[in-house]
Amino acid sequence: MWNLFKKNPENYPDFWNKYASYFDKEQPEIVDDTTFVVFDTETTGFDQHKDRILSIGCVKIKKKRINVAESFEVYLDQEAFNPDTVEIHGLIHHERFQTISEERAIRLFLKYIKNSVLVAHHAGFDVNMVNAALKRNNLPKLKNKVLDTGVLYRKTRLVTNFIDPNKNYTLDELAIAYNIDLKDRHTAIGDAFITAIAFLKTLGRLKEQRIKKLLRY
Hints:
18% strand; 9 helices; Nucleotidyltransferase, domain 5; disordered N terminus
């Protein structure tokens, strides 16, 4: 079925067209009017071509509040297994999670995020993994604006004269700096929640005009 989309790139499935239609609207430039989706992926490894997503976890932020009731979490069928990463993410091959196909996970993820601003820690990796999954299903890349909490946090350090422009701060370092509980670390939904708290605390340190600029471009 999916081969016909590859032959005719404009003939995308309804769920993609529905997702894309949300971007016809003008996006807000004020934080309180913006819906953020903070997300994390757990994967079989770090190679976007060979490795696969094992789980996706998301939480929504509206009016600077984390809406736990609207959280999102899916586990994907494991097409690839890397025992070296089990120690990190804790997802064991054949463990009894209710899993769904990659294509189904993509459908649900796009339906959930709509045109929200995506937020992740070291966001490039998570976005690349999702885009790789989209490509495997003959779909274009994500259209959402993306913010990286690592980059945002570094901006606050520069403002306070703790200048280390080349340092890539880990999520653990942000959690320690902000006194955030790490008990659910290395689960997709747990990391998304930790990142959401860090994101809100970081926004509190940035000037409003800088935030508006981030949302505009």
